[in-house]
Amino acid sequence: MLEVNKKMDMKITIIYDNTVYTHGLRGDWGFACMLEVADAPVILFDTGANGEILLSNMKKMEIDPSKIDEVIISHNHWDHTGGLDAFLAQRPDIPVYVPGGYPGASGISTWIPVTGPAKIHDSIFSTGELDNIEQSLVITTPKGLVIIAGCSHPGVDVILDEAARYGTPYALVGGFHGFSRLNMLKGLSWICPTHCTQHIDDIHDMYPEKYIQGGAGRVLTF
Fold first, then answer.
1. Torsion angle, CA of 199/53/108/162, rounded to 10 degrees?
2. 87 near 51, Cβ under 8 Å?
3. 78-96: b (≥16 Cβ within 10 Å) or e
4. DSSP labels, 23-84
5. In whole angstroms, what is the distance from residue 4 CA to residue 20 CA?
6. Are 159 and 131 within 8 A, CB to CB?
7. Contact 177, 197 (CB under 8 A)
8. Strands laid side by side in the 219-221 sheet
9. What is the C-alpha separation between 66 and 81, in angstroms, rounded?
């Protein structure tokens, strides 16, 4: 197990999702969230499908693009990268972490390719590009690991196994895609399925005490 700093607090703000949690925001197919972790830069994880919706939701939530320090892209699918150009128009020099195979990353100084497991900051880690498609984030907290996934294309079980090198998974937030081996989630304390999760109702029914509703505007604290 890698040495990590477990004395951290964090907040996840879902900015972009298929559903809406806070009245007045816009829902759309895609995902983006803001991560605020103690003693670390503020991160925008993914950018949704549409830049106008991304920036509109941010404005309504009083999230100033200038207050975001870094962008991390989970994978090169339009519903996670569609808002990137619009955001970069606001913050052209911001560092952008992308999976190693992301097209266009090479040779652009502000783009940082991530291939294998990597320490991004003291309490923030990347699983690396799993199955040559997608990276997820792992954040250490006093309660355990909080894992942020874009679509979980490699499989939720694969992501949880990779994250476990940093400690014990506590919460999973993001899209689960078609993952159906729901018994693999029983060790988690919090489950917040969003975006592309096909079996979201089954997850709710199987783990009502662990299930947390997502949607644009939802704020989670750990």
1. -20
2. yes
3. ebbbbbbebbbeebeebbb
4. TT----SS-EEEEEETTS--EEE---S-HHHHHHHHHHTT--GGG--EEE---S-HHHHTTH
5. 34
6. no
7. yes
8. 111-114, 96-99, 70-72, 43-45, 32-37, 10-16, 219-221
9. 19
* DSSP secondary structure string for all residues of 188-200: -SEEEEETT-TTH
Name every residue whose Cβ is closer than 8 Å to that of residue 122 and which is 6 or more positions away in sequence: 4, 5, 8, 39, 40
> Chain centroid to CA 75: how far?
11
- 170-206 tens-digit pLDDT: 999 999 999 999 999 999 999 999 999 999 999 999 9
pLDDT digits (tens, 9 = 90+) for 84-132: 999 999 998 999 999 998 887 655 668 999 999 999 999 999 999 999 9
Q: State the number of CA atoms in the 13 A half-sphere of 213 facing the CB.
A: 8
Local structure of residue 181 (DSSP, 8 states) = -
Does position 2 have pLDDT exceeding 70, yes or no?
A: no
Could you tell me if 191 and 211 are in contact, meaning their C-beta atoms sit under 8 angstroms apart? yes
The model carries a pTM of 0.94
Closest CA to 33 of 63, 77, 3: 63
User: Counting Cβ atoms within 10 Å, is residue 29 exposed (0-12), middle (13-18) or buried (19+)?
Assistant: middle
Pair 25, 107: CB distance under 8 Å: no
Q: Cα separation of 33 and 45, whole Å?
A: 5
